[in-house]
Hints:
Layout: H1 3-8, E1 16-22, E2 25-30, E3 33-37, E4 74-76, H2 87-92, E5 98-101, H3 103-107, E6 118-120, E7 127-129, E8 132-138, E9 154-160, E10 163-167, H4 177-181, E11 186-192, H5 198-202, H6 211-220, E12 223-229, H7 241-251, E13 256-257, E14 265-267
Parallel strand pairs: 3-4, 4-5, 5-6, 10-11, 11-12, 12-13
Antiparallel strand pairs: 1-2, 1-14, 2-3, 7-8, 8-9, 9-10
Amino acid sequence: MTFKEWLNNPSLDQNLSIGCLGQSGYVLKKNETTILIDPYLTDYVSHPDGLNDPKMKRQFPPVISPSEIQTVDAILCTHAHGDHMDPWTLESIKPRYKLYCTEAAFNNNPVNLDADQLIWVDWEKPIAINEFSITAIPAAHYNQSDPEGKPDCVSFIISVDNINLFYWGDGIPYEGLIERLSQNQYDLFFAPINGRDWFREKNGIIGNLNSRELAKICSELKIATVIPNHFDLFEYNSEIPAHFINYVDQINPNQKVKILNHKNIMTI
């Protein structure tokens, strides 16, 4: 079965299946429910008619074209950046879906969707999408809120059938984050590892936590499997997963790590 066939057809069993789109993008499928998270399925960031950033050319083509998606119930976007909240992807998906994001993220992105498709997320306010229960918490990228103190970038805690997932799109550690995350145990913990440095920040690239920071965070929490992301799509803003695994071996050697590459599908 191809990735497109898997995405567009109902699940054949009662299991939760997760497909990787690359960067920080994923597909969650359970029975007849399909949820996309941070889908970047075009070349909007590098294209002259998009953000026109030649440093950010894709290292692999989209795993599926937005116009080929035949079924989706909801799309979750963690923040406004084009590689997470891609207006060309969001506007090209034909099925009617609900977009869940913060109002600040939507207002800082050029995406054009009908008002009845939009649902604003707030910190700690539960969201129900069929059998999925979702809670957004602050993600500091680099600030936890917009200039008015309202939610901006978020991460998502997702539960379905007693399976707990955490999706961290972009962000860095901040005071109180470990305490909040420690309220849950996680079967899968998705987080960026591409880090940040003076050279990239000088070129306007807002960074993320690095491999060592994520390994340390894992040692503070109860995580069955950690899945690093945000390392594969842009050569200029990437990381080598082996570096993360080395830090885990040093800091938290009992932590299970899974490298989920684009087009990979896992079932739990």
